[in-house]
Structures are given as C-alpha cells and as structure tokens.
UniProtKB/TrEMBL annotation:
GO cellular component terms, semicolon-separated: plasma membrane; proton-transporting V-type ATPase, V0 domain; vacuolar proton-transporting V-type ATPase complex
Stored Pfam families: V_ATPase_I
Keyword set includes Transmembrane: yes
Protein family per UniProt: Belongs to the V-ATPase 116 kDa subunit family.
Protein's organism: Homalodisca liturata
Protein name: V-type proton ATPase subunit a
Length: 298
C-alpha cells in the first residue's frame, strides 16, 4: 500500500499521478510478455516448433528490448533518485523524454534546458550507446517476423506440413500479404496496447477521487458537526448515507466499470498475443452428405 501521510501532502496528486501511471505501464508490459510466452504452448501443441524461433523469439525480444527496458528505467529512477539528496530529485530525468530520445537516436544532452546544465540526463554510464544497441536489435527483429515464416513455408518444406495439418492451400502471394499484415499489426499493437493499459491509471484516480468526495462531503460532515448530546445519532444518520454511496457508487458502479475494462484488456491486449481463433468451418451431421461423398469416392 501507499503511506497514508501522502493524503495530507501538498504534492499528493502529482506524486500519485506519476506513481500510478508508471505502475499501470509495468503491469501492462508484464501482462503482454506473458501473453506472448503463451504462444509457445500453441506452437508446441500444433507441432510447429520452428515457429518459436521465427515468431515467438523476435516478438518477445521486440517487446522486452523496448518496453520492458522502459520499465527498468522506471525502477532505476525510483531507486537512484531519492530523498537523501535534494539535487538528485531535482535532476531526475523524465522516462518519457528518455524513451523518445532513445527511439530517435537523439542525445539527451542536446537541447537541454540551461536550468539543468549541472544535471546528468543519463542514469548510468554508456546509457546512450546501450539504448542505440537495444533499438537496433529491436529493428532487426522486424525482418525476422516479416520474412521468417513465409520463407520457411515456401522454401523449406513447411508448406507441405502446413497442408497435411488440414489447412487450406494458400498462394504464395497471400502468405506474404498475411504475414506482412500480422507483422505490422504486432509492431503497432505493442505501442497502442501499452498505452491502453493507462486506463488502469485513470480508473484508479477516478476511484480515489470518488472515495475522497464521499468521505469529505458526507461522513466527515457528521464527525465535525460538534453536537454534544445528539452527535451519535447524527453520525449514525450520516454513516447510512455514506455506506449507501460507497456500495452503490464505489462497489457496484466502479466494480462494473473495472470489470469491463479488465475484460477488454484480457481479450484484446492479452489474448491477441497468442489466440488466433481460426477454428474450422462448422459442418452439421448429415447422412445424405456422407452417402453422397462415399458415392463420389467410389
């Protein structure tokens, strides 16, 4: 939990906003990495072990090299820049700006505000060079995702195995187009799905503000009225309104809202990493069809 002293701090909103935003991103990245790892079970079940190298490995590396690294920067910022040194808090670099500069291959020292001329924009030695290497490795994962599976299917005998498993025969052009769409969709989804987990931050802030309003505007009024003889009765009445508002708004309405949001996060952001849902065409049981097929075979 969070230290209750933050409830009376003047910078409570600033601190909680930053903390909850980072925490929602960390939860989202862990959730998505676990979803990508679930695809290994699918590849093993369907006997497509080569797809672990051609699909799973570049996908999980792309996610870890960029977005898991961003989570590492968040933990480093929490650990390295603490209260003992006031200057270190003042010089704490923005993780968002650092990540943008990393993607643009931009030196964080360039264009720095003169007010922070004595501050080091990097958290550890050789950070700029390491970040460039991480981005280059992530970019190299893209052609593996784009070209690996089609080349295996068309040139390495994978297409014959693909057909033996009951899959419909696809022309080479459709294989390339399907893989290109799948690759572009995955690359873009890593960004959009990570941002989608910020809904956890918004839900937490809304829930906190509603609970604070119910406490200050309802129950707290009964506590500070100062009526000597009837104070217990007044508190009892205000408690009834506060309890009703808590159950109706915070538990029922906010609970339903949280359920709908987590349902979407599991179905889209999580399941899209491993669940395809192609299935097979439903053919109802029919003696007439079976007999006609046997007659055609004879």
């Amino acid at each position: 939990g969070m230290d209750p002293v933050w409830q009376s701090a003047s910078n409570k909103i600033i601190f909680q906003n930053s903390f909850k935003m980072k925490l929602s991103i960390i939860i989202g990245v862990i959730h998505m990495v676990f979803g990508v790892c679930m695809s290994v079970v699918n590849h093993g079940y369907f006997g497509n072990g080569i797809y672990v190298l051609l699909e799973f490995l570049p996908q999980v590396l792309f996610l870890i090299l960029l977005f898991a690294y961003m989570c590492v920067l968040m933990f480093m910022k929490w650990i390295l820049y603490g209260p003992p040194d006031h200057k270190s808090i003042y010089c704490a670099p923005s993780v968002l700006i650092t990540f943008i500069n990393m993607m643009l291959f931009k030196d964080s020292n360039s264009g720095k505000d003169p007010k922070f001329k004595d501050c080091d924009p990097y958290m550890y030695p050789y950070q700029n060079s390491i970040q460039m290497g991480l981005v280059l490795l992530a970019v190299l994962c893209i052609p593996v995702m784009l070209l690996g599976k089609p080349i295996y299917l068309l040139c390495c005998g994978g297409l014959k195995k693909h057909h033996k498993e009951g899959q419909e025969e696809e022309p080479a052009g459709e294989i390339w187009i399907h893989q290109a769409i799948h690759t572009v969709e995955y690359i873009l989804s890593t960004i959009s799905h990570t941002a989608s987990y910020l809904r956890l931050w918004a839900l937490s802030l809304a829930h906190a503000q509603l609970s604070e309003v119910l406490w200050q505007m309802v129950f707290n009024m009964g506590l500070v009225m100062g009526i000597e003889y009837y104070g217990g009765i007044i508190i009892y009445i205000f408690f009834a309104f506060w309890a009703f508002g808590t159950i109706a708004i915070l538990i029922l309405m906010e609970g339903l809202s949280a359920f709908l949001h987590t349902l979407r996060l599991h179905w889209v952001e999580f399941c899209s990493k491993f669940y395809s849902g192609n299935g097979y065409l439903f053919i109802p049981f029919s003696f007439k069809r079976i007999i006609s097929q046997e007659d055609e075979e004879e």
